[in-house]
Write a structure and sequence with these properties.
The chain is α/β, with parallel strands linked by helices and 370 residues long. The protein is built from seven helices and twelve strands. The chain has a single domain, classed as Peptidase S8/S53 domain (Rossmann fold). Strand 4 and strand 5 form a beta hairpin. Helix 2 runs parallel beside helix 5, helix 3 runs parallel beside helix 4 and helix 5 crosses helix 6. The chain is globular, with a radius of gyration of 18 Å. 61% of the residues are buried.
């Protein structure tokens, strides 16, 4: 069976005075300049990374130190990225070492999950890019350990076999959080069409992993697979206005939203949504497949970019100890939802789920960020 995946890409607020502000320069080249670029990490427009960083420093596990996050994607340029060199990487696996034939998008396996597309490096950087090193931008869970698992080829396509193998590998390596920033779009409409992935999801869940998936980028009124599988935390995207992104899939199965960048959807009774404005993407150091020159790529928007904010926040919750030393995946999901910032209609709704993930509140002992 072929299940080709197409990964679709499509006011700065000052942090509280007490919050830790890393010295990463961003595009301005000045210490702390990342704040002008990473609206997605700021309070108000984003997930309030400074408050979360303070909470983790106070807990003695800065940046989620010691938590294992598996990134199932196009691989990670852990050897080449100029701002991932100090990140701890666990042993990864490449389940897509060459292009497949026939029904398969991937073929071959090896132990070098090097990114040849750029997408996986961008996702991993949002989760754990080096922080306070005077270089580039910041990563939300900068102290976490990344397990790179390559399940997509150099065009961003993958198949059921590579993804199922990747999930089982991540679980066997002890991943506490698994990030899946890809979706099948309209090609898959039921769990019965991807039985090996569904079985691998259950396997990872039995091992205790929280699985986070992108809801999809086609503006469907349903969550795309595999994020629609039972037990996966599905994540839609919002813009810097805190408005549903124009491309984001929605529906009753949507759990949370997070910054994905791009333009606002046109929604009634939401004056903050301005669909005629061109809004900002999610910046990270990554590269294009064509030239592999690392720069601040400005083309990355999507639920693929939203999901890693939730994965990183889950890692910070684990490290913070607010749920005890070994929280279950269900406890993590409940915490993410309980501390999310409500958007749209009061309470859970099809556009925003339980609301926008709030790393500051999720890691605070009170569950409320100051």
């Amino acid at each position: 069976m072929r299940a080709a995946l197409t990964v679709l890409f499509f006011l700065i607020l000052a942090a509280p005075a007490a919050a830790w502000i890393p010295n990463d320069p961003g595009t301005s080249g000045t210490p702390g300049g990342w704040q002008a670029d990473q609206w997605n990490f700021m309070p108000g427009t984003g997930v309030d990374a400074p408050r979360a960083w303070d909470n983790l420093i106070a807990a003695g596990r800065p940046g989620g130190k010691g938590v294992k996050i598996a990134v199932l994607d196009s691989g990670v340029s852990y050897a080449r990225s100029p701002d991932l060199s100090s990140i701890r990487f666990a042993r990864g696996r490449d389940f897509c070492s060459r292009m497949g034939t026939g029904a398969a998008s991937c073929a071959g396996e090896d132990n070098t999950p090097e990114d040849d597309y750029g997408h996986g490096t961008h996702v991993a950087s949002t989760i754990a890019e080096s922080t306070n090193n005077g270089k580039g931008l910041t990563g939300l869970a900068y102290g976490a350990t990344i397990i790179p698992v390559k399940v997509l080829n150099q065009f961003g396509d993958g198949d059921e076999d590579s993804i199922a193998k990747g999930l089982r590998y991540a679980a066997d390596q002890g991943a506490q959080v698994i990030n899946m920033s890809f979706e099948f779009g309209s090609s898959i409409t039921a769990a019965s069409e991807i039985p090996r992935i569904a079985a691998a999801v259950k396997y990872a869940q039995r091992k205790g992993a929280l699985i986070v998936g992108a809801s999809g980028n086609i503006a469907f009124d349903r969550v795309s697979y595999p994020a629609a599988l039972k037990g996966i935390v599905s994540v839609g995207a919002v813009t810097e206005h805190g408005c549903l992104a124009v491309y984001s899939d929605t529906g009753a199965d949507l759990d949370l939203v997070a910054p994905g960048g791009g333009d606002d959807a046109a929604l009634p009774d939401q004056p903050n949504c301005l669909p005629d404005e061109t809004l900002r993407p999610i910046l990270q150091l990554a590269f294009t497949r064509k030239n592999k020159v690392f720069r601040y790529t400005r083309s990355y928007v999507g639920t693929s970019m939203a999901a890693p904010h939730v994965s990183a926040t889950a890692a910070l919750i684990i490290a913070s100890g607010v749920l005890g030393p070994k929280p279950t995946a269900k406890a993590l999901e409940d915490r993410l939802k309980a501390t999310a910032r409500d958007l749209g209609a009061p309470g859970p709704d099809p556009q925003y789920g339980f609301g926008m993930v709030d790393a500051g509140a999720a890691t605070a002992k009170s569950g409320v960020a100051p």
